[in-house]
Amino acid sequence: MLLPVTAVLLASLSASPAARARPAPVKTSGFDAIAIPLVSFSSDQGMGYGAVGGMYLYGAGKEPYAHALSAQVFFSNRGVQSHSLRYDGPRLLGPLRVEGRLDYRRELRSPFFGAGNQSAPEFRGDVNNELYNFDKGTPGFWLRLRGHPFGEEHPLQSYVGYGWRHMRVAAYEKSLLSREKPLGMDGGNMGQLLAGMLWDTRDNESDPREGGVEELSLRISGNATGNRYHYVGLTLSERRYFALTSRLTLAHRMTLDLLFGDVPFYEWSNTGGVNVSEGIGGMNSVRGIERNRFAGNIKAFMNTELRYQAAQFRVFGQPLKLGAVAFMDLGRVWHPGVADGKWWHWHPGVGGGVRFSRRAAVIRMDYAVSTGSGRQRCYVTFGQMF
């Protein structure tokens, strides 16, 4: 969602070594620090602005750094707030990587269209209509331990973690949420036990051209984890990259997310994994469709991109790359007790965009159309979609 305006010029301070073709010499003492403005835009959440800062502390035998701290403050003109403090210790506990984040997110108009693949058939595209919105606030944190069981060069990674947040739900009097009253209307604590495995053979972590990454992740919620609701989530994800020519890359992602048990409505649109997504609909799942337009206990989506590196040039002495992308996204959901339509009833979005990149920093600008409704959406954000 966020776009550091100057990050393309300063990415060398924050790029992970796995994302660099030729890493810089490892520093053994001292620190680096940086602060940059944030600007973003999406048709779903409007114009956003804020700032982010980071600090990297180095130590002997600690690669790529001993500790990293980052902080973010972010607001949008549609009532979104997203503030966070994050820690990363690549070798804090021997070979184990310790990652953690403390955050607060508030949305004055968070979308709710009901459950299922054919929800809210009367919706005509007005995302500001109170009928399809509610307010929420979610302070929380997560902590994760990640490692390579068979050595740093082996593609297998595994992780365990814990996440907690408090969900505050405020439904509008005449909204669809007030009318349907699904499980979770009262909000409450959400504690989850997290675990997963990745098989990562990508040649470049931030902008891959070959290889892929497969992930299996699990999240468990119940009284023992500090959650008032009992449910289990399972996420399977596959990402593949093919270098067709020296400039052309075919990228493909498939994600399947399944929820079982007493699932609160605000979990219907979430997926698990190291990099979580929302959907179906929005800049992280199916572009061109309104954010979280379709939600349910089972979600599946696919993204195919043809990425073309058009040119390289220098700005203020820094090397930049210009790229273009054509894409097609597909997604659908299944939910118990509602009509989801035929098995082939998927929701597609098509479009194109441009990319500006330097090392790990990628600026993404996309234009997309929902071929089902004909509605159009624009996104400006930071990082490849997958």
Automatic annotation (TrEMBL):
It is found in: Membrane. Its main location: membrane. GO terms for molecular function: protein transmembrane transporter activity. It holds the Pfam family Omp85. Transmembrane segments: none annotated. One of its GO terms (biological process) is protein secretion by the type V secretion system. Keywords: Membrane, Signal. This is Membrane protein. It comes from Corallococcus macrosporus DSM 14697.
